[in-house]
Specification:
Layout: H1 2-13, H2 15-22, E1 29-34, E2 40-45, H3 51-72, H4 79-107, H5 120-138, H6 159-186, H7 189-217
Antiparallel strand pairs: 1-2
């Protein structure tokens, strides 16, 4: 558990020193925003690169808050704490990859993202898909809490509905994660974003309906 927490904190704070060091080498003006056509729509100061590392730290603190909250609701063991740490590591890994990608485009003053060898949308959603598969695999182990898991008023009705809902939600997460990875391998840019988000949105009503159905049965 100590190793996982160490990795969590490293990923949480790493983007800040890396970005601070990079400031010495970055040009004064960098691409600050790209449009849906992958073209630069705004240029900004190189110090704007510090915003994303700060957001990463804030997100890490948010995950630590969820960890404490869900752990406090677990009467026995530290199952929820372990799951929160794993979820946090994968989430922070995505933030770290994005930081590296942004520093690359800033350093090279990339005006058209289509010229970058790796597509950002593909990269993010492949990582998201992997995260969903991993998290879906551990969802059935989550103990009842008010912070994470497939939580609805129906899934939290009793222990039976909770366990069955997490089992179904875990399977759903893994299927959606696999679909997102496949979509990311065959689409790029806005199309990749649109299809991946669409799959996520479509899966939510199915998961919620299952919790309602199982609550009526038990």
């Amino acid at each position: 558990m100590k190793i996982q927490k160490t990795i969590f904190y490293i990923l949480m704070f790493l983007p800040l020193p890396v970005t601070l060091i990079s400031l010495v080498f970055l040009p004064d003006q960098i691409p600050a925003h790209y449009g849906s056509d992958n073209q630069v729509t705004r240029w900004g100061s190189k110090y704007e690169t510090l915003l994303f590392p700060v957001v990463t730290i804030i997100f890490g603190l948010f995950m630590l808050g969820i960890l404490k909250f869900s752990s406090d609701q677990e009467k026995n063991g530290k199952n929820n704490e372990k799951i929160c740490i794993v979820a946090g590591i994968f989430s922070l890994l995505i933030f770290n990859v994005m930081t590296g990608y942004f520093l690359y485009t800033d350093f090279n003053k990339v005006e058209n993202l289509s010229t970058v060898p790796v597509d950002l949308s593909q990269l993010i959603f492949i990582l998201l898909g992997i995260f969903m598969i991993v998290f879906g695999n551990i969802m059935p182990k989550i103990r009842m809490n008010s912070a994470m898991g497939l939580r609805t008023k129906w899934s939290m009705k009793n222990e039976i509905t909770w366990k069955k809902s997490q089992r179904f939600g875990g399977s759903s997460f893994m299927v959606v994660g696999l679909l997102i990875i496949l979509i990311s391998c065959f689409t790029k840019g806005f199309a990749c974003y649109l299809w991946s988000i669409g799959i996520l949105v479509l899966s939510l009503p199915i998961d919620i309906y299952y919790t309602y159905k199982i609550a009526k049965k038990y």
